[in-house]
Design a protein that fits this description.
Layout lengths: L1 E5 L4 H12 L3 E6 L11 E4 L4 H7 L5 E4 L11 H16 L3 E5 L13 H28 L3 E7 L1 E3 L8 E3 L9 E3 H10 L12 E3 L1
Parallel strand pairs: 1-2, 1-4, 2-3, 4-5, 5-6, 6-10, 7-9
Antiparallel strand pairs: 8-10
Helix pairs in contact: 1-5, 3-4
Length: 205
C-alpha cells in the first residue's frame, strides 16, 4: 500500500516506518525537519501540517497513519486542529482510510491504565493532551472516512511480541503497558484489516 505517515520522526513513528518497510509498504512522510529522518528509503516531504502541504502529500495514497505527538504542557488544540485539516484534505484527495494513534486516556479508556497511569500520569502530565485527543476522536467519528482510533497503553521500549490484548469493551479491564514495537505492529495491521473499522481499540498487556 501507499501510506502517508504523519509523525514519522517520533519514537513510535520510527517503529512504524521500519516495520512498514519490512511489510513492503510504499511510504511518504511529511515532516518539519527532514534531518530527523536520517538516511531512509522513503519519500520525505518537508513542510508544516497545513492544508497546502497535506494536499501535496495525499494524492495517490491509499491510507494515512496519524502518529503525531506533542510534549506535555498547557491546553492544546494540536491534535484536533491537524485532524480537521487532514480529514478535509483526505476528502479532497479521495483518500479513504486513516489509522490515528490516540492513546489510553481518550474517551472511555480513561481509568483503565492502572493506578500509576490513572492517578498520577494522566491527571498531572497528560490530561490536557487527552482532552484534545477526545476532540480528535469526535472529529474522526463524525467523518465519512474509514477511520480506526488506536489507543495504545503506556509505552515501553520492549521487543515486538504480538501478544497484546485489544478490546473496546472496557468493563473490568486494566491494560497497563505496550512496547512501541507492538503498538506499531498493531497500528500497521489496521491498514488492511476491517476488524476495528470505525472503532476505538485499547491495546496492550
Amino acid at each position: 500500500m501507499k501510506v502517508l505517515i504523519l509523525g514519522a520522526t517520533g519514537s513510535l513513528g520510527k517503529q512504524i516506518v521500519a516495520q512498514a518497510l519490512e511489510r513492503g509498504h510504499e511510504l511518504t512522510a511529511l515532516v518539519r525537519n527532514p534531518e530527523k529522518m536520517g538516511e531512509t528509503k522513503i519519500r520525505v516531504l518537508t513542510g508544516p501540517l497545513d492544508a497546502e502541504h497535506l494536499e501535496l502529500a495525499l494524492p495517490g495514497q491509499d491510507a494515512v497513519i496519524f502518529a503525531l505527538g506533542t510534549k506535555p504542557g498547557g491546553t492544546t488544540t494540536f491534535f484536533s486542529d491537524t485532524t480537521r485539516l487532514l480529514l478535509t484534505a483526505m476528502q479532497k484527495c479521495n483518500v479513504k482510510r486513516i489509522v490515528a494513534v490516540t492513546g489510553i486516556g481518550s474517551g472511555d479508556s480513561k481509568g483503565h491504565g492502572g493506578f500509576l497511569y490513572d492517578w498520577i500520569v494522566y491527571p498531572l502530565i497528560t490530561k490536557k493532551i487527552y482532552e484534545d485527543k477526545d476532540r480528535q476522536e469526535t472529529l474522526l467519528k463524525a467523518s465519512d472516512r474509514e477511520w480506526i482510533a488506536v489507543r495504545p497503553a503506556a509505552f515501553t521500549n520492549g521487543p515486538l511480541t504480538r501478544t497484546w490484548r485489544a478490546t473496546d469493551d472496557l468493563r473490568g479491564v486494566t491494560i497497563k503497558w505496550i512496547s512501541r514495537a507492538d503498538a506499531a505492529s498493531f497500528t500497521l495491521d489496521q491498514l488492511t484489516s476491517n476488524e476495528w473499522l470505525r472503532r476505538t481499540p485499547l491495546v496492550g498487556y
